[in-house]
Amino acid sequence: MGKRQGDDNKTFFNSDRFFNEGGKWFFTTREGQLKGPFDSRKDAEQELMLYLRALEERAKFGLNP
């Protein structure tokens, strides 16, 4: 499936990755880790981006997640 025009620079998240419990937001990683709590979904999304960037940096040096 192709991308829509203008979507090339957007980041998309799996909606099942985020959830709200007790007014706090969490996300799960592909490795099955639970991260949170965060005050908002936006905060959780930002933390996920930081988490993914850290994984990429580790991979550059041959380190496992």
| Protein structure class | alpha+beta
Question: What is the string of SSEs from the N terminus onward?
Answer: EEEH
Largest sheet composition: 3 strands, antiparallel
Strand content: 15-25%
Q: Biggest sheet: strands side by side, in what order?
A: 1-2-3
Question: Helical percent range?
Answer: 25-40%
Tally of individual helices: 1
Protein model, in words:
This protein has 65 residues and is α+β, with helices and mostly antiparallel strands. It has 1 helix and 3 strands, in the order βββα. The protein has a 3-stranded antiparallel β-sheet, covered by helices on one side. Strand 1 (18-21) and strand 2 (24-28) form a beta hairpin. The mean pLDDT is 84.
Could you give a quick summary of the protein structure above?
31% of the residues lie in helices and 22% in strands. It contains one helix and three strands.
Name some characteristics of this structure.
65 residues; alpha+beta; three-stranded antiparallel β-sheet; 1 helix
SSE order and pairing:
Blueprint lengths: L17 E4 L2 E5 L5 E5 L2 H20 L5
Antiparallel strand pairs: 1-2, 2-3
